Amino acid sequence: MSVLAAQAVDPELARLRDSIDNFDAALIHLLAERFRCTQRVGELKARKGIPPSDPDREARQVARLRKLAVDAKLDPDFAEKFLAFVVKEVIRHHQTIAANHAPSVEEQRKS
Amino acid sequence: MSVLAAQAVDPELARLRDSIDNFDAALIHLLAERFRCTQRVGELKARKGIPPSDPDREARQVARLRKLAVDAKLDPDFAEKFLAFVVKEVIRHHQTIAANHAPSVEEQRKS
Lengths: 111, 111
Known about the structure:
Two copies of one chain form a homodimer. By secondary structure, chain A is mainly α. Chain A has a single domain, classed as Chorismate Mutase Domain, subunit A (Up-down Bundle). Chain A has five helices and no strands. Chain A has helices spanning 3-9, 11-48, 55-71, 76-101, 105-110. The longest helix of chain A is centred in the N-terminal third of the chain and has 38 residues, at 11-48. Chains A and B meet through α1, α2, α3 and α4 of A and α1, α2, α3 and α4 of B.
């Protein structure tokens, strides 16, 4: 049997892949909901003039997620890299929101 | 009120952060469970001599996750980057598993 045929018919591989696909769908939906929250955080921060980045909050999040990862038997270094990956995207969104909230050059001239 | 004090007391920010923390805990636990599945996939592949990487499967996953992301109002480019980030870690695990399953130089000499 070729390698491709083995992959096509192996029932254990197919079953595991079905689970992975379900986890991925759940992850995508959770990430979408997480970004809805951070979008609102970004708008709130822009409205109140709070800087987009918050190193203290991020340090607390890293420590907490590393601990949760250990409890879940996930590599804590991976959990930290994952948070950094998500936060990088969030900060990109927040900077866009802040830029849209900043007074334009025209508005600054008027004031 | 200083920026720090504003962050400390703003109830809407605190509420949103509580939600983000809950989503992060859920994400970490789902990722842990996803890696448990891919760990088993890696062991299965190593046992059956199936290559760790599978570009066809990955292309199907990308297309599916991009569609799920659009439905969930998440940037499909981000969803694709997220999958690449996770798969990169999975392939790293699988290569380690494959290396551990490969016959040692000593075993190869004996055969």
